[in-house]
Amino acid sequence: MGEPDPVVVGVDEVGSAWDAVEWASAEAAARECPLAIVHACSPPVAPGPFAPGPEDAGVVVEALLREARERARRVAPEVEVTSRTIVGGPAPGLASQHAQLVVVGTRALGRIRSAIVGSVGVAVSSRATCPVVVVPPWGEVDPGPSRSRVVVGVEGPVRSSPALGVAFGAAAQRGVGVTALHAWCPRPPADLGGIGDDPAATEAAARHRLADAVTPWRRRFPDVDVRLRLVPDDPAHALTGESAGAALLVIGSRGHGCVTGALLGAVSHGVLRHARCPTSVVGPAATVRRRARAA
């Protein structure tokens, strides 16, 4: 068997990804695989009178990568850590890496955090062929009902199967339980004189979909404690609320193209903007690669 695929983490010039680097290092240690730190930079251009020359830019990037390596090794000294620079945009560059997991951070810029997440985290998630984890800045949060558990959003047995696989694998790796959450809302009547959905029937159908989706994964991971959560709420709001204090939040993505904003859909995009724990986005093209490649 060859070397296992690495966990890849992206870093940028402003050092906004230190939480992501540390999280990725711990994850690589748990997976017993290497960690690759990647910095994406624009193609070189002719320096102007006020622009730094290529040598100055190289010094800045090397200092950035050196600090990232040091931070990673402080978290997990046993992990093999490499770093490199790639030319191009961060989203396509990170998404093209051969990895078992890609990790990105979010810049702690208050109200415009959503735009930053949308520009990198969403874009990487929509392109990558492996799961992508978006790590928010660390901060104190009041833990929710799924403290230290893995939370996974469930739509149905087929659509949610990739996300459920990642969630149960992550829970087994960490020795924690899974909270499988399905949010539902009865449809209102089309007009004032119409008849809307029967709430009891809608809830029963939602409960059935949730149980059907989780059952095969319960059989595959019998030692993982499972809680089913049926919440009458907007899915993004329900998932972000459940994420407070969770070990990981896992959501699926319907992305299948190149227009990043619409790819993940409103739920995934909303969750990435407001989640209060690391969030794993599992796109339709994502495959879980934890084992070593054949030599």
Calculate the mean pLDDT score and round it: 81
Q: Helical stretch count?
A: 10
CATH-level-2 architecture: 3-Layer(aba) Sandwich
Q: Kindly report how far apart the N and C termini lie.
A: 5 Å
Structural class by SSE content:
alpha/beta
Low-confidence stretches: 108-115, 256-263, 291-295
The CATH topology is: Rossmann fold
Strand arrangement within the widest β-sheet reads 3-2-1-4-5-10-9-6-7-8
Whole-number count of domains? 1
Query: Considering DSSP H and I runs of 4 or more, what fraction of the residues is helical?
Result: 25-40%
How many strands in all?
A: 10
What Rg is obtained from the alpha carbons, in whole angstroms? 20 Å
Summarize the biggest pleated sheet: 10 strands, mixed
Assess the beta-strand content as a share of residues.
Answer: 15-25%
- Shape verdict: elongated
CATH class: Alpha Beta
Query: What is the succession of H and E elements?
Result: EHEHEHEHHEEHEHEHEHHE
Give the SSE map.
Layout: E1 7-11, H1 18-31, E2 35-41, H2 54-75, E3 81-87, H3 90-95, E4 101-105, H4 113-119, H5 121-127, E5 132-135, E6 150-153, H6 161-174, E7 178-183, H7 199-220, E8 226-231, H8 235-242, E9 248-252, H9 260-263, H10 265-274, E10 279-282
Quick summary:
The protein has 295 residues and is α/β, with parallel strands linked by helices.
